[in-house]
Amino acid sequence: RVLFRSLSSSRSRLARYRVGLAAVAVVALTGGIAAGVLLARPVDRQVVNSELATRDIVLCLDVSGSMVEYDAEIIDQFLTLVEGFDGERIALSIWNQTSRTVFPLTDDYGLIAEELGIARTALDFDMDAYYNGSYDPDDLDRILEFITGTELETETSSSLIGDGLASCGLLFDEADADRSRTIILASDNQVLGTPIYTLPAGADAVAARQIGLIGIYAGASTDTSAAEQKEFEDVVASHNGLYFEASDPSAVDAIIERIQSQQAIDLEATPEVVVTDRPVVPATVLVLAFGVLVVVLWRLRT
Predict the structure, then answer these.
(1) Are the C-beta atoms of residues 93 and 60 closer than 8 Å to each other?
(2) Residue 260 predicted with pLDDT over 80
């Protein structure tokens, strides 16, 4: 018997047997832990504030020629605004003589950021280079493609802000739902031609639908710009809105605060916890442990 155990092959087999027994113990323990976790029903808990899910915001951007050199800066502000939101639905409409919806109300923030990025790239166009003929043709093609649908064949009108504002008001769906609605309107209010809606009439139209108004003014200094800026500011203020110049560094924080505080008043809601079962990992470990255990036991028998 002692001689048998002294044989190298016997010692090697005994060592493998002991290792196998240790592996069985480890696998069985792992499987037991996985089974315990699975029985405990692992879940993800996410706090969802239904108040945020009832906020709708339409970004309403003037893309007329006089605004192009300011639009990229406005889009940057929109991107920063989006970073401060969480759960709100957001849409983007661009307008000049007519309006085009870039994307409708959505809470897909990946899509929103992507579309705003595309808008910023397209609108980052050098108007001075355009006028002196030194522009990049690809840049021109890009901006022309982006603003398609905002211009008519006639060149006798431009920047029809009242019509643009009224069109943005039409993007709010679920008219019968108890939702908070806000338009963030960016323009220089340099109207050329005869619109269907004047700016005051457009503001009245959205106010009648209980849509809040926030105005961002941007524009070059001209003989008429002071009066245009004052009208813009007065109309926004008379409709209980917020007014900012695009260069105001406090605009983004103030807009976010206004939207959140106003809707906290308008929409009473309490956070709710959403519980989602997550059995995949422990179940996978349990199955793998069982498979390994069967293989190890079979090897031990042989």
Answers:
(1) yes
(2) no
Distance CA 262, CA 260 (A): 6
The tens digit of pLDDT for each residue in 5-60 reads 455 555 666 666 666 566 656 656 665 675 665 566 554 544 445 455 678 999 99
Rounded to whole angstroms, the Cα distance separating 26 from 93 reads 61
Residues 85-122 pLDDT 10s: 888 899 999 999 999 999 999 999 999 999 999 999 99
Amino acid at 121: T
